[in-house]
Amino acid sequence: MNFLPDKTKLIEILSSWNLWNNNAIDLGKIRNEYLDKISSFIKTGKVVTITGVRRSGKSTIMRQFLKKLINEGVESKNTLYINFEEAAFGNLSLELLLKMYEAYNEIIQPDTKPYIFLDEIQNIPAWEKFVRSLNEKKEAHIIISGSNSKMLSKEFATVLTGRQIMVYIFPLSFREFLLFKDLKNIDNRVIALKGNKIRRLFREYLQYGGFPEVVNINEDNIKIRLLDSYMSDIIQKDIINRYNVRKIKEFQALINFYLANYSGQISFNSIRKFISLDTKTISEYTYFFEETNLIFFVKKYSNSLKEQEVTSKKIYFIDVGFENLNKVSTSENFGKKLENLVSIKLKYMQLNDPLKSVYFWKDMYNKKEVDFLLKRKNRISELIQVSWNIDNNKTKEREISALVKGLKQYDFKKGVIITEDIEYKEKHQGYVIEYIPIWKWLLI
Q1: Rg of the chain on CA atoms, in Å
Q2: Which of 139, 136, 137, 142 is nearest to 119 (CA)?
Q3: Could you give phi then psi for residue 145, rounded to 5 degrees?
Q4: CA distance 11 to 5
Q5: Which of 4, 306, 339, 397 has the CB geometry, 3.0–4.6 Å to 263, for a possible disulfide?
Q6: Does residue 161 surpass a pLDDT of 70?
Q7: What is the C-alpha separation between 404 and 165, in angstroms, rounded?
């Protein structure tokens, strides 16, 4: 039997995380977009599940929402926050969770339906039984978090079907990044006045990405060390330990392959030529990466669902800062980073609008490609091409000809090309081509 701390000791540990005695705690820059979403979702009576890649800010957002509740009139004793990565708890178990909840009720004594925050809940075996019980009895408002979105949803599917609603936390968007750099309320006036500063800050964002802790560090070397530690934690704690991965060398080779080939098309058959793994194992390991929200894929658009599944997909990382860990390439490829940045925003839009889907498009001969095709419900809504620099006439013609081919295919009159810093419109073969600087597009 595991030794369990007594209830007084548990409350002592929990007090360092909760706001029962300290409402003045500084929780950093407020990410209001997520707080507003949680506020809306909690009113449904469902369990609000917060997920996202490790270190994207899930814990901070949970505590920001807790403080928001108190600022709006909820008594602090009617809130409970538990961080299940707290070392002082020792061995984690369902029994420990139940004892924490008992200690909270006996010692803190909430006098109304409390708000219960369970952070990194996947560390507790059989946690879903506890959450289901509270939710079924309408005993508490429940907000949980975990880095493994598919595992959370899979476990819920067995015991809480239809009782949860998901909130996906991303590393900082460019607008949030500017807020962290003390540039807020970005509108056309601010862009006109501080456009040069915004451009300079975009270069930093492009280089190191949007993980909050990385953004708050000034030393470039430490930024990269942090990114490396994030990757190591994801690989070791979220995947290797949890799924008992045995082929460590090959597993590491696979993530290195993805770091070298992000923003490109991959197939498991092609990867097999470079790594000593069969396609089944490659597929399994890749699924682990997806589950931790580290990578995601964009499928080729086709009217055939079968073709979408079996053809090559394009791979992207959830944060462009991870490119700094690429040990294969000897020079930066700004075009790939630009495309990855666009994919992240489109992924965010897709997760916030269940009717929206994102693809890339190729013509029937696989000669012309459009980087992103957006579809809402059953209707294609936009075609987007991405190119860092179109000063070279050959590059410009290649990008335009592919985009126009796609516009003709779907009877569109206008397409978008996202570039480093070019902004104008022109007509080509009767089609309107709009060039938008990436830093402006990210602020739309």
Answers
A1: 24
A2: 142
A3: -140, 155
A4: 10
A5: 339
A6: no
A7: 40
Beta strands 414-419 and 141-146 are unpaired
* pLDDT given at position 152: 54
Question: What is the maximal distance between C-alpha atoms in the chain?
Answer: 76
Query: Where residue 1 falls among pLDDT bands split at 50, 70, 90?
Result: very low
The residue written with tokens 């002592």 in the block is 12
Burial tier of 221 (Cβ tally within 10 Å: 0-12, 13-18, 19+): exposed
Residue 348's identity, in one-letter code, is Y
Please name which of 52, 35, 286 lies closest in space to residue 152, comparing C-alpha atoms: 52
Of 346, 342, 347, give the one whose Cα is nearest residue 418: 342
> The tokens of 43 are what?
């009113």
Both tokens of 139, joined, read 């005993």
The rounded distance, in Å, linking the Cα atoms of 331 and 61 is 36
Which residues have CB under 8 Å from 133's CB, separation 6+? 139
Of how many residues is the chain composed?
444
Average pLDDT over residues 175-194: 94
CA dist., res. 143 & res. 42, Å (int): 8
Distance, CA of 181 to CA of 74 (rounded, Å): 31
CB 21 within 8 A of CB 15: yes
Domain boundaries, the chain: 7-169, 332-444
User: pLDDT tens digit string along 293-334?
Assistant: 999 999 999 876 666 666 789 999 999 999 999 987 666 789
> What's the CATH superfamily of 7-169?
P-loop containing nucleotide triphosphate hydrolases (3.40.50.300)
Q: Label the pairing between strands 424-428 and 414-419.
A: unpaired
- In 3D space, the residue among 100, 140, 152, 120 whose CA is nearest the CA of residue 56 turns out to be 120
Q: In this structure, are residues 35 and 143 in contact, taking their beta carbons and an 8 Å threshold? A: no
Tokens in use for 288?
């682990």
Q: State the residue for tokens 């693809």.
A: 359
398 and 404 Cβ atoms separated by less than 8 Å: no
Please state, as a whole number, how many other Cβ atoms lie within 10 Å of the Cβ of residue 163: 17
Q: Do residues 286 and 277 lie in contact, with contact meaning Cβ atoms separated by under 8 Å?
A: no
List the structure tokens of 306: 């079968």
At residue 48, φ and ψ (nearest 5 deg) are -85, 115
Alpha-carbon distances of 94 from 52, 137, 410, rounded to whole Å: 23, 18, 54
Helices (H), 331-420: 334-352, 393-409
Report how far apart the first and last C-alpha atoms of the chain are (Å, whole number): 56
